[in-house]
Fold these 2 entries.
Entry 1:
Amino acid sequence: MNGADTAFVLVSAFLVMVMTPGLAFFYGGMVRVKSALNMLMMSFVSLAIVSVLWVLYGYSLAFGPDTGGVIGNLDAVGLRGISPESLTGKGGIPVFAFVLFQMMFAILTPALMSGALADRVKFGAWAVFLTLWVTVVYFPVAHWVWAEGGWLRELEVIDFAGGTAVHINAGIGALAAVLVVGKRIGFAKEPMRPHSLPLVVLGAALLWFGWFGFNAGSALAADGTAATMALNTQVATGAAMAGWLAYERLRHGAFTTLGAASGAVAGLVAITPAGASVNAMGALAIGVVAGAVCSWAVGLKYKLGFDDSLDVVGVHLVGGVIGTLLVGFLAVDGVGGLTQFGKQALGTFSVLAFSFTVSWLLAKLVQATIGFRAEADDERAGVDQAFHAETAYDFSAVGGSSARTRGGAPAPGPVASATAGHGGRDGHERNDSNETKVDA
């Protein structure tokens, strides 16, 4: 066992774990007050569900001995046959360290999808969908990309840390679910601004911090590859933030806090598959392109008529595609070129087609059986009270509503939310004023 590499991978796993609560803050700050806790829970619950599934059968399906290039077998169900002395990786790390590290990837990926469905789905139905999705979609795609014998790995598709398996997979899966669930009540008609931009920035900062473990840790060794990936992660993220803000200033006339946070995430997404295969200039190019293009892409939902609440499609799907395709041209050491670009395109569109189709079918199944969409009254009143019997903030000290919850506890009154002039996630294509408006 290599002690230094083992410590590096374990610490990286801990950093990736921080990304899920970071994502909860990032998404939680972007929704309205009445949905804040539900949004936090939709991310946070993935830590519980996927941790259990991963040990029971997820690791075996994703990284067990290959079956036809598409799935692992069930030899490692319950992690049987793996001892604390079993080693893997470049320098010899315990298999359990690798199991833990990849578990954190599996936890984060479905949580990414939750932002697309904010404000309007039943919490129990989301938990069922998450369970089905990670089993039928994530585990097989992770095998394709990273496991020995996986067909995309055998074709030498470059995806160092998850452009296809994580971001494209989650982004297109979120789009499929959104098309089944439908639009929020009042979408594109009522203001739906972030209730707490400080929470958004906090979440983005935690994501950025944890992403070093996500990206550099994928080297599975404390070596030059990990250092290259860490450096390129920082370069691309900074460049993407600048690219997003530049586009936003030209298009909307302001440099917004939400834009800065969103641009950073777009850069983190785009460099994830590519960072170990490009130099610093390549990382800078990927970041700038991702920031500007993702800033443009978040407005497509208004033109195309789908309600991706927190722009999972515009950031994760589009950013993942950008990074996965551009590395085909920008990879160094003689790897980049048309041949590699063709491989990257094949990997991209294979995951797009598979994930969209299966995710749509799973969402349809949940909708037809237990019902995915919340009741209209619950959606209007707020899914926090409907499904959690709690609220994020207690406004009783400043005068609250006399309304009662189902359990008889007093519900808080409305809150005025002053937000940036571009209208938050749902205002990139609308010229809203900077007025303080009631938006609870």
Entry 2:
Amino acid sequence: MAKRAFDLVVASLALMLLAPLFALIALAIKLDSPGPVFFRQERVGRHGVPFRIHKFRTMVADAPARGPQITVGRDPRVTRVGAFLRDTKLDELAQLIDVLQGTMSLVGPRPEVPQYVARYTPEQRAKILSVRPGITDPASLEYRRESELLARAADPERAYVEQIMPAKLRQAERYVDEATLWTDLRVLARTLRILLFRA
């Protein structure tokens, strides 16, 4: 209950304070390329219930038809404004809407698309999907340059499935085992420090 109350208060305040920034981002996206402001994609949420995540659109409107689920290096589908939003992680701020709706939390394992969740073991599904997915978590901070790592791989899809995803899942399981409001505050503080100082 304390975690959900914290999520609601912080997400509500953040959405109000960031409304002017959201408007500027939306305008920049519309001026840069045709298509919607938000990118909506099905992800797997708590208890395996699917939901459609919010992100500010960073790719061309028909990006899903042009390539794989993962983004590798300087993906040609990424727009000019999208490259800036991705680099600064501003595209993820739209998920405050998902937090307010209750499908996500501020901190929790990042939600995956169904095709990758299908690779989870039963034990991983039971543990990781027992909590709401989050905007940030220790694994997403460690792999914040994931697309650059994948760009150096001979087979990016295989590298993600066999190397990066297992490592992220181990961290997700550890998060679930150790999560408290205090550990969430530490993750949020680390996230803000990285975003503000690019550390």
